[in-house]
Amino acid sequence: MRTRVIEHELLRVFVTVVDYGGFTAAGMVLHRTQAAVSLQIKRLEETVQAPLLQHPRRTVQLTRQGEILLEYARRMLSLNDEALSAVRGDELAGRIRIGAINNYASGILPPLLAEFCELHPEVQIEVHTGVAAEMDRKLGSTYDLIINISQEGQGDGVLIGSQQPVWVTSARHSPHAREPLPLALLPNGSLFRKFALEALARQGRAWHAAHESTNLAAMVAAVEAGLAVAVFLREAVNFERLRELTEKEGFPRLPRADVRLHSPDRYLSRATVELREFLLARLSAPSAEPLP
Fold first, then answer.
1. How far apart are CA 217 and CA 77, in angstroms?
2. Which of 15-24, 105-114, 123-132, 253-262 has the lowest mean pLDDT?
3. Which helix (H) or strand (E) holds 101?
4. Of 1, 53, 166, 186, which has the fewest Cβ atoms less than 10 A away?
């Protein structure tokens, strides 16, 4: 029986559709029509003899077979790019996708990644922010590396720092005095959301979500304006605009949090390995930048 061969070009289209959230967006990136992208996805499904996307959907959702193929597709494309680079004697090349907690993505990582890209201009790096549980789930499929946070002593990956989450309020207003307590929260799956709600539950204190966002700058603005109280890393707080709430004010001490660099238990491209080692060398003693 003849072995089926998956065309790499079809895999590139499939990964692009997933990464950019649809056929139209993928077509713009690949400079193809939506119909052409749709046809190539159909050819890929015929090759693997399995449905990869749930049709019809307004947003891209993978089938179980699609989730399995996505990880293989990223590995195959990465290995293909690395092989070409090695044969031609080129520098490191390829695409690396990183998931990172907000203060690393906005303050600590950008200058480090810019330095790495100057050393290796053929490497393309994408940084995405997310909540802890979601990034953990997507490691290996969506992300090649993640910088994530976990309760002290409970995570895996390589430890790059340990920091203290604190309750924070406005330096000029008093949302912390209101009942029920207004909170600015990251979405479900956030470790700091978990810390905050568990602490309030132990106190039996009522609360409501006054602001919910994945955008840290938006959360900071909400707290500064007096709209809500939030939990941030102490090392990342600008205390000219915000103020830490203490146990004397009725806000219990929260567990410490470990920051760890994670890589998936699968083949990593040479560029990803080099970036991981570069980041570990630079982040061995991290110091967070103040929030904007």
1. 35
2. 15-24
3. none
4. 1
Rounded Cα–Cα distance for residues 202 and 139 (Å): 33
Beta partners for 143? 139
Tell whether the model's pLDDT for residue 119 goes beyond 60.
yes
Which uninterrupted H or E stretch holds 212? strand 207-212
Q: Which amino acid is at 144?
A: D
pLDDT, tens only, 75-107: 888 788 777 777 766 677 788 999 999 889 988
Residue/partner pairs of 107-112 with CB below 8 Å, 24 or more apart? 107/236, 107/288, 107/289, 107/290, 107/291, 108/283, 108/286, 108/288, 108/289, 109/147, 112/278, 112/279, 112/282, 112/283
Q: How far is CA 90 from CA 79, 96, 121, 144, in A?
A: 14, 17, 11, 22
For 149, list phi and psi in degrees, rounded to 5: -125, 145
Using CA atoms, how far apart are residues 257 and 238, in angstroms rounded to an integer? 19
